[in-house]
Please model this.
Amino acid sequence: MKIYRLITLVAMLAILLSACASSQTSSTELNLYGWSDYIPQQLLDNFTAKYGIKVNYDTYSSNEEMLAKLQAGASGYDVVIPSDYTDTIMIKQGMLDPLDMSQLPNFSNLDQRYINPDYDPGSKYTIPYQVGTTALVYDKTTVPFEPKSYSDLWDPRFKGRLVMLDDEREVIGMALQVLGYDRNTTDPNQLQQAEQKLIALKPNILKFDSDTPETSIISGEAWAGLVYNGNASLAFASDSNVMYICPTEGCGIWIDTLAIPKGAPHKDAAMKFLNFVLDPAQSILITEGFMYSNPNDAAITYLKTADPTFYASYMASSSMNPSPAFLGNAKPIVDVGNATTLYDSLWTDFKAH
Ligand code: SPD
Model:
């Protein structure tokens, strides 16, 4: 009799141990920290339906906001969406976990141009999420003249009529370019001049908005501004008088990525999510919803048959599918190392001015 009791006890212990082990590997939650207005709810619902993993989605409006929060010790996030130059910083500071490529069969769907980028050599820590430009938007029916360069934004006729991204590297970069400097300069004197230049622009600025700047253009409250390509596409979709141009000084070009912060509590769920986002049918939801450029080749091919009307407007759009001429003068933002603190304090001073 005793031997049976012992066997039962051992069996119960084995069941208990295996239950503990499986609760560690199969997560039921995913904590996502990403840009606002960037991930369609439908995609998150589809992910939950497929894997039974609930997604908690916290948002931010700039790379600097996300980075500061993580650097201050915020933990618990499983997936973040840094832009290129922020990846460089996070990789350098050991803030990201390397990806397990064996769990990313959909990685092969990506356009080869976005593999092995300068900001993440060997694509060890990140996958491209969406791609874009930052450039000049205006409504040709409201502007008093047709702007061609960033310097036109300083025209007094734009008083109180500009919407600007609340994005320090993009806005300071624009001022540096107007002054004829490199948008990634580390020269304190050039940065000081950029601050003065931006202070002179302040009377023309109606508002700073990195989340939905298109709404100010659509309402007619703002006549022009500096926005991301997705904002310009959304504005154009609602009003075909909206123009999006790469000005004479050159526009910005960027890649936003998905990455896993070090110490992510649900790494298994995070890897599943990354692979899921690269699925063509999920990936096109992002493009249809937010209208950036999609780095997923298979998704664009899928779009052609799944939604031919939207595919045609995607291909014809200078914001979603920019021509080589548009991109000819586009420059990326790169990590400026210790000079980051100069950019941060310039931005704080300028905003407070
Ligand atoms: N609302 C989502 C916006 C994402 C834009 N990321 C662009 C970063 C450019 N430096």
About this structure: The chain has two domains: 27-131+255-321, 132-253+326-352.
